[in-house]
Amino acid sequence: MSKASSPDSYDSLMARALAKVDARDYRGGAALMESALHIESTPAVWQLLGITWKECGENTKAREAFLRVAELKPGKPRAWVNLGATELDLGLFDEAAKHYKRAVELAPDRADLRIWLANAYDRAGDLPSALESYRQAEALEPNNAEVFYERAFAYRNHDRFADAGRDFARAYELDPKRENAL
To answer: Whose CA is closest to 48, among 23, 26, 73?
Structure first.
């Protein structure tokens, strides 16, 4: 048996990991990915491991994997976005905002990143920063219903119901299929 086809080879471990993930055995897949990472540490596998741990609801382990991706690929917005999203799930709102901000710095023309950053600021209780990020997203994409919808929630979270109503109405005007904006 050649080294490459050995059951303990990187390729074999990753093939088996992907098969487990495809079968929704996320924990089994994650264990095999971790073994593969001992052989060869790649950002792509760390990314997949983070996503796999998220599927298991293991957000702390997912965060560790996404931190590793950010270390290995600091110039990639996706690394920071996945890290920020996981930190939101963990209630680490200030950390999430910091990491979403890094993603925005890397891709300043993406309104979606600014919306996610705004949501993190809102969850951290920083409404002024959230509103500024929503304003920037709106400037990039003035007809993006998501900007208005998410900002409406931020206003509502801070008891600014008239502002929330205005933005929910605008979100519905832009995207009438989004009935929950009413």
So the answer is: 26
